[in-house]
Amino acid sequence: MMGNRGGALHNSEREIVRSYKSRRWIACVLEFKGRRRVVMAERRYTELFFLDEAVAFAAGHRPCAECRRERFNAFKAAWGGAPFADEMDLALHAARKATYEARLGSLPDGCFVEMNDGAYLVWDSGLLLWTPEEYTKRVRRPNDLTARVLTPKPIVECFRHGYRPDIHGSGDIMAP
Q1: pTM of structure
Q2: How far apart are CA 28 and CA 49, in angstroms?
Q3: What would the pLDDT profile of 142-153 be if each residue is shown by its tens digit?
Q4: Which of 15, 16, 17, 79 is most buried when burial is the number of CB atoms within 10 A of its CB?
Q5: Could you state, in order of their start, the residue ranges of all structural domains in the chain?
Q6: Using alpha carbons only, what angle is made at residue 28 by residues 25 and 32, rounded to the nearest 5 degrees?
């Protein structure tokens, strides 16, 4: 999965100089209509890469309305009503840096939480340990434990309303 944060985050030497350019943070497919990009091209948006959709959501991105139209529409429906992308982007921008505490048993599938040894994806009855390459282990979800939630609250609410993010195959292999 690829994403961007509204513009160029890099300079002409391909060094990252800012964390975002605008509040429009989107997650896209890697291939769409044969388009080709040069990564970190001068004066073009900076490409970001995610293991899967759940990771992109934890970073505060939403589905692209062009290359991921079906997922975007499902996300909009789970958001409630029919918000415009700008409305969602405004709410997400305000929520991106605000982590919070919650009981693991209260969280829907798709949320990322921070625990002692790393970031975990809440998935089915377990927690999947995230690495940039894959999910590496599954542990039982201790429902009464409180953890820091990394996924922004508006996205967590979309999960509560039926949106189920796509995850990397390494997570599906570890299904209960």
Answers
A1: 0.91
A2: 9
A3: 999 999 999 999
A4: 79
A5: 2-173
A6: 145
